[in-house]
């Protein structure tokens, strides 16, 4: 399994396609990335499935979350 994976996601706000380089070596990650097109925050949830050598990436907007 490669440690760095290039993924393409779609911005939940504007539909812009964004390339991300994900570091799968550091395990599951949950973070916010700003869209390069509309600058809105995109919530990224990365889960490493070691059993299947797979990386799952969940993308959603952060609109309804309250900090
Ligand atoms: Zn966007």
UniProtKB/TrEMBL annotation:
<dbReference type="InterPro" id="IPR017143">
    <property type="entry name" value="UCP037225"/>
</dbReference>
<dbReference type="Pfam" id="PF14255">
    <property type="entry name" value="Zn_ribbon_21"/>
</dbReference>
<protein>
    <recommendedName>
        <fullName>CPXCG motif-containing cysteine-rich protein</fullName>
    </recommendedName>
</protein>
<dbReference type="InterPro" id="IPR025990">
    <property type="entry name" value="zinc_ribbon_bacterial"/>
</dbReference>
